[in-house]
Fold these 2 entries.
Entry 1:
Amino acid sequence: MIQLTEVRKYFGEKRALGPVSFEIPPGGAVGFLGLNGAGKTTLLRILATDLRSSTGEVEIAGINVATNPHAVRKKIGYLPETPPLYRDMAVGEYLKFVGQIKGLSPDRVDNRVREVEEYTQLTSVHDEFTQNLSHGYRQRVGIAQAIIHKPELLILDEPTKGLDPVQVLELRGLIMRLKEEHTILVSSHVLTEISQTCDRVFVLNQGELIASGSEDEISANLSGTYRIMLGARMAPDTRAEDLVHFVQGLPDITSVEVVQQDDQLLTLSVQSPTDCRGSLSRSLVKSGHDVVRLELGSNELESLFVELLGQKVN
Amino acid sequence: MNGLRVIFQREINAYLRSSVGYILAATVLMLDGLLFYTQALGPEAEARVSGQVLAIFFYTTSGLTVIASLVLSVRLIAEERQLGTQVLLNTSPVRDWEIVLGKFLAALVFITGITLGTLYMPLMIVVNGKVSIAQILVGYSGLILLGAAVLAIGVFATSLTRSQLVATAVGAGITAVMFLFWPLSTVVDPPMSRVLSALALHGRHFSGFQQGLLHTRDVFYYLAVTYFFLLLATKVLEAKRWE
């Protein structure tokens, strides 16, 4: 879907981004994480064809952005940090305008406006002027204008910025639903935002890409090990020490730590250089134990992020 | 062409719904009426023939058309940048010339509407004097062509900046210089005087329309000025779109 090769952006002498190279396949949601000034907005603006990169190549859906931006613009929907709303237009009228400039035919646009309003829960404010809307509704109108022409790629720059917790939850739900139909790029400096909505994370710092992958992959790459949370109901007459000893003896297990014990239910934190959840569960079941929890461990994004930035600074 | 049509419609609706549009129209029509009363129907009016009264009307109206065109045009693109809506146009599959032309045509229709609102004044001259409808049509053609040229200058000025104040200063500056070419042409020697009078926005090129005389040279001049500044505005927008 997206291919960036050695992309850099300079504002005067100052390097705002790059060199950045990556590839994003179609489907799912990708999060761009970084502190303020990390280069997230610059990168998203380049992908949204709002900004030209100083060097390097950007391809979206196989089309070179520099040589054919017009064709790329038909395939993207973009919500900048501040939704681009005309204050003198009502919501329905605005969405119709955006639909038309994005290329929807006049006979299709009215139906599409209705669909998008229902999808983003804007039907009740169809006739309201955008200047009279609350911040949450404005963000929703911003998302509605970005998806009105059913773009393949949806770019959302800090979509939850300034929203209250309830609005954040609502918008997060909306993004989760949009993931089913679009490839989504979301930027945020709120870690839980990215963690809960995105399948893949790109971490930016001072214009450079310092890590990428799923939360688990970043975690494994960072420490060189996978942390597996194992919950097991021990076989009758088995002591916790026996189970810990048993797990420690399995191949690829480097360390085992008891997290919690509740009668026969034992929770262990297991370190391994590989994702050995399959062999681990088979061995436990074979030995008569029940596996009630088995997941890659919660090196939470927040601590990973801090660790990543710490490494970079060091 | 779809982008042009949609932007044109949006701009027209924006004029019809904004108080600025109505205030501008009311101010121009009121001043025009007052000037017509004092200049054309004043104490010296009896000594004038109808053609002269009509020429004075078109002369005073041309000044107001120029000011109204500048006021209307300098917000066109600068305001989009100020409000953050330019990004919507930048990331949409709409060409730069469609943005420029859509906004320009909407402003031209609005200015034409205001100008035609003065029609009752020359019609009074028709009723009470001896001027032909053709003379009036030619005069109005001149006003609309002059308005189009100044609008194009304003669109160019507004494409340069996000500040409406700066755009106004640039637009007014270019217009003023092009107005001054005419008096300057009378005090310098040829061939400079010929060059300046050929480039002057008013004077030589508008006087024909004022008298009811249609010269293709003058029509071509105003169309060329309009095209030139719209082209410049498109190029500026093109360069700034990816800035």
Note: The CA atoms of residues 77 and 243 of chain B lie 15 Å apart.
Entry 2:
Amino acid sequence: MMKKWIVLLMVAMIGLGINSAAFAEDESFFDWLFSLEPRNEIKPMHNELYNEECSDCHFPYQAGLLPEASWRKLFEPAALEDHFGDNAELDDETRIELLTALIADSADKSHYKRSKKIIASLGENEAPLRIIDIPYIKRKHHDIPEDLIAGNEKVKSLSYCDACHQKADEGIYDDDTVVIPGHGNWTW
Amino acid sequence: MNKLTLFIIALLLSPVAVAATPIEQRMADYNPDGNLTFDAKRGEALWHQQRMVDGKQRDCNTCHGKDLTQAGKHVKTGKVIEPMAYSANKERFTKLKKVKKWFKRNCKWTYGRECTTQEKGDLLKYLSQY
């Protein structure tokens, strides 16, 4: 009799495990509420196609760095044809798949702290095309001298997140993980 | 020679005859009926064909670099672009989908238009012999 209970308990536990794993990708409010994962940063991108396609040319910016409306504008076929001066055309199938993944985790849907701050800093209908035009991002980089960014051959622009943010690919952007090339750690 | 010996010889030779390199396969993809002839010289000329955009010259080497056996650097982002020469980079040209994607993007960026099938084949031929 005792054994049966143990087996039942184990089955229930496995079931719970599978359930929470299944929800990891598309997280509900309750998953968020009961999750022990820290949500201080930006959700890392797990979409392999996205990481592969975008990192051919640049750091694969996380979905949670821009609101849905921005991603929609960026992923218009005509917009991709002139993607900040480069041709980044995608076939429709790929384009829709990537856009769908971006929308699902865009800043306005994210439970992550920095995404929320990004949205809070934007006006209601504001949807910038560049992450560096977001007021929160601007403010965060405001007091770094220009010669460490634009005047720094190894950085060039704020657009290259991973030039200084050592854990940018994991969606981690806190001060402790910043190393400015030719300068060192960034301390206030 | 008896038939069996001939058969064995044929069997041994066949993989050699059939196994085309990825870049040869891509050239065949752009020439399914076999009625086009691809020319490395024409490909080379096209590779170096320049166009002025916003006061700057651009050609293929703008991002791929002068020595195609070496890695290039994206003119804007600085991202490393693996070598284009088939001799230096056997991984290139293995996927038709990727080849199509980059021909489309880069012909438009470099020449301001899409490349013709003939031109794509010529460029592949050039890179296959580099």
Note: The longest helix of chain A spans residues 2-23.
